Amino acid sequence: MTQTVTNPTGAAFDRDPLLEQILGPTPGQMLRRRVLGHQGLLIGGAVIALLALMAIFAPLIAPHDPFAQSLMNRMEPPVFLGGSWEHPLGTDHLGRDYLSRLIYGARVSLLIGVVAAVISGVIGTTMGVAAGYFGGRVDAVVTFLINVRLAMPVVLVALAVVAILGGSLTVVTTVVGLLLWDRFAVVMRASTRQVRAREYVAAARAVGASTPRILLTEIMPNIANNLIVVVTLEMAHAILIEAALSFLGLGVQPPTPSWGLMVSEGKTMMLFEPWLVLIPGAVLFTLVLAINLMGDGLRDVTAPENRN
Amino acid sequence: MTSPLLSVRNLKVDIPSGSGTLHPVRGIDFDLHRGEVLCVVGESGSGKSLTSLSLMGLLGRTLERSADRMEFDGINLLGASGRQMRKLRGARMAMIFQEPMTSLNPVYTIGDQLIEALLLHRRMPRAQARARAVELLEKVGITAAASRLGQYPHQLSGGLRQRVMIAMALMCEPQMIIADEPTTALDVTIQAQILRLLYDLVREMDMAMILITHDLGVVARVADKVAVMYAGELVETGTVAEVFDQPLHPYTRGLLDCIPQPGKTGRGEPLGTIPGIVPSLVGQVDGCVFRTRCTQAGPACLGPIPRRSRDGHLFRCVHTDGYAPAETKAI
Amino acid sequence: MINFVLRRLGLALLVSLTVSFLSFMLIFLSGDPAVAIAGEGASMADIEAVRSQYGFDRPILVQYFAWLGQAVQGNFGNSYYFNLPVTDLVADRLSVTVKLGLCGMGFALITAIPLGVIAAMRPNSIVDRTALLFSVVGQAIPSFWFGLILIVVFAVQLRWLPASGTDSWKNFVMPTIVLGYYAMPAIMRLTRAGMLDVLNSDFIRTARAKGSSELRVMFKHGLRNAIIPVVSLAAVQMGFMLGGSIVVESIFALNGAGYLAWESIARNDLPTVQALILIFSMFYIVFTLIADVLNACLDPRMRSS
Q1: Hey, where are the domains in chain A?
Q2: In which domain, by residue range, is C142 found?
Q3: What pLDDT digit, counting tens, does each position of C142-163 carry?
Q4: CB distance B198 to B179 below 8 Å
Q5: B169 and B177 in contact (C-beta within 8 Å)?
Q6: Measured between CB atoms, which of B277, B289, B291 is closest to A22?
């Protein structure tokens, strides 16, 4: 489309370069350009997608049954350390295929990450939005609860509660989810307060919109980008806590293939076969790194003015 | 005629960026004599602030400054080291900024900030520096000056803070003050007071001042000389009488049409406007920078625009006929 | 100012009370604590005896205040497992954990603040990118895995440092690095962000216009402002670090309170767990209280309001 550029005073030039400079890209184009130009976001997203596919299609991809023991083939080295392609990443101390356990382990980590982030997200967002929107006494109560929650040592409490209730995947996920709502509450409270003070919220109230309607159509869309960033950060947090609990032997119980548990099981053999510890730890690190990269990237892309 | 205090030739500021280099200041020339007040006028984004920052050597790291000459009191500012510039700043050239609310450090007292420049540039006991601070606070019209020294910026109003900023600039009795829209952020009544104060002090202490403003009324009252800036160029420079009574550049005429004049502007008669916006500053501009908004624009405006002169009254426009091209001598 | 400190103190007290109630309630999470203490195969009469001996037959609030009254005096009851007063057990171990926490925080601050400042002075430079890489890795690396790698490299391969124990300062080097690296990214990022913010502010330009040297601008005018939020963060991180010492201490077999927590949790030794949760929480509460008061002193705007 050719743009006819006219001098506002009427004196027209054909395609004056000075006037053409004034026209720039649309906001949508700028967002797309930021996404495609953000390496961290792209790399993080790709790694997460890959690991998620791995978790979903684990039964199709895994070369062996992750629970099948074979005491004859214990601690076979990975293929790059002289092992065979039968077990590309070797076998563990019970002769279970390490690659298959790793693939199934992605299910545990991702499940915990997603479900715990959803639980804590619902709790924390509700509290934070309520505190930020209603202020006053509601805010005082929520702020107090946040303070109480922050004072409790997460790993210790999670460990104690899981130890008492028994370390099933459900218990670990629920406990972690119930403990990690603090950042949601803090961030959502702050963002809601900010948005609430804007003119368009006052305008909505002035035309008689109900409180739920304002919360849903005015507040939520404007704090959603911050929410997404916190979701990713807390997913990573939950995954790390599960791994730590399982590593300490008080989280997910054997024989469930959890990456933290695999590190823990490999620990005793670490001085002879360091790869038993290195491989699951490296995968865990990669997943958490990817999630954090994506979170940082989302923050950069959706709120470029807040970039630090 | 004595040599000027500040002499600038072909000053340029460039901002390299991903989508092409920006040229917010495109080769400007001017001289400032001792004790003279030069007002730089122009709309937002015309490069006024960057010009003043480049004189002080305070441009950001990503900005590039170049010039054919930049001399202050015989010192070549272009070749000056960081150390030499630091010795000049605050001591012999001082600056007053637009935003009094944020230009003071929130965590230090007024007193500490006032005496900082003095202690940096002159060896003197703290007590003596504080006495000087009190003296200057009184001079800028702050009551109970001694007790103000222990106060923090947030305890003062905007007008008071700007008075403090003025006192701070005067601490070492500089030869030149650059005031970058010093009253823009203040209430209208305070604006007049602060400007009057600044003007009186500059005259009293016989300093030179570059006052950046877009208030033409102020210019008419305080300036010795005027420089009209548009899109990074000085489109017209001259004495107040020359520029205001016989504006030679269409942009200056447009600016002057925007203000009502008692006796001239009739009741209900619309004020002038300049349509359009300042062009983007990416890339070099061939021809006149004002042509996209100029009522007289024509094909000739796309060609090179020589700087022309009438008895030291300089302008850049092809349309006002009958004047000779300028020599390379400014103002 | 005094009002602020008093209000803040009141809040801290209220939070402590709530946390103490929550940690007290832990023993009821498992169902009937008397059954748990009496052990498997105990008869009804045994359980009843335990119930009245420990006072579990009283209303919960009465039990709570009785427990709290003792706890305030430093008596957390006897450990089920070690059969020793919990207070003695914890006191014995706490010094190691506190030492480790201080070392870790010291390490984090010494690395994070200069890195953050330099990164902010030259955004997008090599230093900035390296610092960012360090912080991104630090936020993602599981501390237990990082600890194990350090052991393999420095204790086993290079034989520079002992892998476990508490005999000398050498034992604290690797735990300090692991714990400090956990807190370092957040502090680094906040310092960098704060400095970037401050360095773009008008008063920095004022300082330069006065002829201040770059160092003076950075530290006297810049860092002095940017450090205020870092103080709060460091306090919070310090609390988190002590809570996180459980992982680090168990990797390096450091005989501290974190290790004790792991032992007592694994052995269902609830009085010890309760006491440790409360003590770690109290550390956090006290640290953040100190930080808030310190902040009020550092920031004149807060001091006078």
Answers
A1: 50-306
A2: 86-267+295-304
A3: 999 999 999 888 888 888 887 7
A4: yes
A5: yes
A6: B277
CB-CB neighbours of A203 under 10 Å:
11
Q: Which chains sit next to C, with 3 or more Cβ pairs under 8 A?
A: A, B
C123 CA to chain B: closest CA distance, Å?
11
Report the pLDDT value the prediction gives residue A12, as an integer from 0 to 100: 43
pLDDT tens string B61-117: 788 888 999 999 888 988 888 889 999 998 999 999 888 888 999 999 999 999 998
Q: Count of domains in chain C?
A: 1
For the stretch C29-33, contacts whose Cβ atoms lie closer than 8 Å and that sit 24 or more positions apart, written own/partner, are C29/A161, C29/A164, C29/A165, C30/A164, C30/A165, C30/C268, C30/C270, C32/C56, C33/C270
Please report whether residue C259 resides in a domain.
yes
CB contact under 8 Å between B276 and A7, yes or no, is yes
Contacts of B302 in chain A (CB under 8 A): 13
Percent of chain B with pLDDT over 70: 92
Q: Do C206 and B105 touch (CB under 8 A)?
A: yes
The CATH code belonging to domain A50-306 is 1.10.3720.10
Q: Which residue, among B53, B107, B113, B171, would best test binding to C if mutated, counting the most C CBs under 10 Å from its CB?
A: B107
Residues A123-139: pLDDT tens digits?
A: 999 999 999 999 899 99
Nearest one of C187, C222, C223, C215 to C201, comparing CA atoms: C222
Contact check, Cβ <8 Å, B99/C202: yes
Q: What is the CATH number of the domain that holds C149?
A: 1.10.3720.10
**C4 in a domain, yes or no?**
no
Q: What is the predicted ipTM?
A: 0.87
- Taking the CA of residue A200 and the nearest CA in chain B, the distance in Å comes to 27
Radius of gyration of chain C from Cα atoms? 24
Q: Would you say residue C95 lies in a domain?
A: yes
What's the predicted TM-score (pTM) here?
A: 0.83
